[in-house]
Amino acid sequence: MAVPKGKISKAKKHSRRANWRLHIPGMIKCAQCGEYKMPHRICPACGYYNGKEIVKKEA
């Protein structure tokens, strides 16, 4: 048999939704140029990843 839903109080509802916020992504410094970049990605400033030049950038 179906059971009716119980009432969810405003405090319960709001406390559940309290963690819906934007987070700043974890940024790290590039070992080559020192610019901030996302981890495990090619640096958009210099084109290096893991000490190797992946994308050639114009100086």
SSE arrangement:
Elements: H1 10-16, E1 28-29, E2 36-37, E3 48-49, E4 52-53
Antiparallel strand pairs: 1-2, 3-4
Q: Strand-and-helix sequence, N→C?
A: HEEEE
End-to-end C-alpha gap: 71 Å
Radius of gyration over all CA atoms, rounded: 23 Å
Show unreliable segments. none
Helix content range: 10-25%
Q: Which outline best applies?
A: rod-shaped
Structural class: alpha+beta
Strand content: 5-15%
**Extended strand count:** 4
Mean pLDDT over the residues:
90
Read across the widest sheet, the strand sequence of neighbours is 1-2
SS field, number of helical segments: 1
The largest sheet is:
2 strands, antiparallel
Structural account:
With 59 residues, the protein is an alpha+beta fold. The protein has a domain at 26-59. It is built from one helix and four strands; from the N terminus they run H-E-E-E-E. The strands form two sheets. Strands 1-2 form a two-stranded antiparallel sheet. Strands 3-4 form a two-stranded antiparallel sheet. A hairpin with a 2-residue loop joins strand 3 (48-49) and strand 4. 2% of the residues are buried. The mean pLDDT is 90.
Q: Could you list some keywords that capture this structure?
A:
1 helix, 14% strand, alpha+beta, rod-shaped, two-stranded antiparallel ribbon, 59 residues
Report a brief summary of the structure.
By secondary structure, the protein is an alpha+beta fold. The protein has one helix at 10-16, and strands at residues 28-29, 36-37, 48-49, 52-53.
